[in-house]
Amino acid sequence: MLISGGISFNSLYSQALARPNAWKKYRKEVTLSVGASGFLGDLGGRNTIGKDNSPVDLEFSKTRVAVSAGFRYKLNKNINWNSSFNFLSLAGDDKLTTEQYRNNRNLNFKSNIYELATRVEFGISSFKRPGVYSLKKSLVRTSKTRAYELLGFVGIGVFYFNPKGIDPSTNKYVSLQPLHTEGQGLTGGPKQYKRVSISLPVGVALHVILNKYWSVGMELCYRKTFTDYIDDVSTTYYDKAALEAAYGPTSALMSDPSKGDIPGFSSPAGDGTRAQRGDKDKDSYMSLQVTVGRFFPPKRGRTKLRSKF
Predict the structure, then answer these.
(1) H/E element, 81
(2) 3-class secondary-structure state, position 133
(3) For the chain, N or C: smaller number of CB within 10 Å?
(4) What does the buried/exposed string (b/e) look like for 214-241 if buried means 16 or more CB atoms within 10 Å of the residue's CB?
(5) Are the beta carbons of 199 and 158 closer than 8 angstroms?
(6) pLDDT tens-digit profile of 42-96?
C-alpha cells in the first residue's frame, strides 16, 4: 500500500474553474511502468565504507530493469489506493569498489525480486473543467487543459528473492541460500533465512492526466525490507572446514572468495571472535520508473457528470 502527499501545479484561478466531481471520471486506472532498479545493502557500492539504506551508496553500473503492473482507484479527489505486481532485478559486486576492505572481500550477487505491494497515495490534485470561457481572454473559449497530481506514498509489500553468486571454479551462477555460507544451521551460526520477506515502499510520483483515457507519469520508490540476506551477506565468516564438511566444497568457496590482499582478513581474532563479513543493517532497494495509465471512465447513462471530451 502507499500513502502520498503533495502539491498542485495549478494557479488559484485555474483551481476555481475545477468541477467538484471531475475526479470521478478518473476513478479507475490500470498502469504499466518500466524503469531502473538499484540495490542498497552490503555488497558493491561506492568507493567508501558502505552506507546501507542510503542512495549515496548506489552503484549505478549495477542498476537493472524494473517493470510493474498495477491498479489505481481514487477514493476521493486527493486520496488513491494502488496495488501492483513488481519485478525488479538487483545486483552487487565488490570488485567495482576501490574501498580496500570491500574490494578484497570479493563477494558478488544477483537476484530477481517478485513483489506484491499495496499502498495509499495522498496528494492535492487539480482536475480542471475543460473548454470554459475566461474573462482574461475576452470570453474566448480556452483549450482543454491537463490535470496534475504530485503525490507522496507509503505502503506494504511481500516479495520473493533468490540470491545467486558466481562460482569461481565454474564461472557460473549458483544459488547461495542452500549453501549456508555463513554457517546457518551449524553450531554458533545464525538460523537459515527465508527467501520471502516484507517491504515498506515509500516515495513520490508525478501523475499527468492527458485526457479521459490516458495518463503518464514518473515515480521514485524506495523499499525498506526486513531481511539482511537479499545479497546473502549479513554477519560473520564461518569456519570453511566446517562448511565443507556439512555442505560441500562449493559452500566453503562461496563463503569466502576473498583476494588475500589483507592478511588475516577473514580469519577469527585471537579470542575466537569471527571476522566480520557484513553488517546487521537490513537491505533496501529502489526504483525509478516511467508510468503509463489507462482510465475507464463511467458511462454517461450511469453518472451525472457531463464531459465534453
Answers:
(1) strand 79-93
(2) strand
(3) C
(4) ebebebebbbbbebbbbbbbbbbbbbbe
(5) yes
(6) 886 666 665 556 666 778 889 999 999 999 999 988 899 999 999 999 999 999 8
Q: Is residue 6 part of a domain?
A: no
Domain containing 156 equals: 12-163+194-232+282-302
C-alpha grid cell for residue 198?
Answer: 516484507
Q: What is the 3-state secondary structure (H, E, C) of 21-76?
A: CHHHHHCEEEEEEEEEEEEECCCCCCCCCCCCCCHHHCCHHHCEEEEEEEEEEEEE
**Sign of torsion over alpha carbons 274, 279, 281, 283:** negative
Grid cell, residue 207, equals 501523475
- Written as one string, the DSSP assignment of 159-209 is EE---EEEETTTTEEEESGGGTTT-TTSTTPPPPPPSEEEEEEEEEEEEEE
Q: Is residue 4 part of a domain?
A: no
Is residue 174 one of the residues assigned to a domain?
no
> In the predicted model, what is the mean pLDDT of the chain?
85
Give CA separation, 24 vs 80, 164, 299, in Å: 12, 46, 11
CA-to-CA distance for 138 and 21, rounded, in angstroms?
Answer: 27
Cell 521514485 -> residue? 220
- What 8-state DSSP symbol labels residue 270? T
58 contacts 11 by C-beta, under 8 angstroms: no
pLDDT at 304 over 80: no
Domain count across the chain: 1
pLDDT of the residue at 140: 43
The verdict on residue 273 lying in a domain is no
Mean pLDDT is lowest, of 82-96, 124-138, 285-299, for: 124-138
| pLDDT confidence band for 212 (50 / 70 / 90) | confident
- CATH number of the CATH domain containing 288: 2.40.160.20
pLDDT band at 227 (very low <50, low <70, confident <90, very high): very high
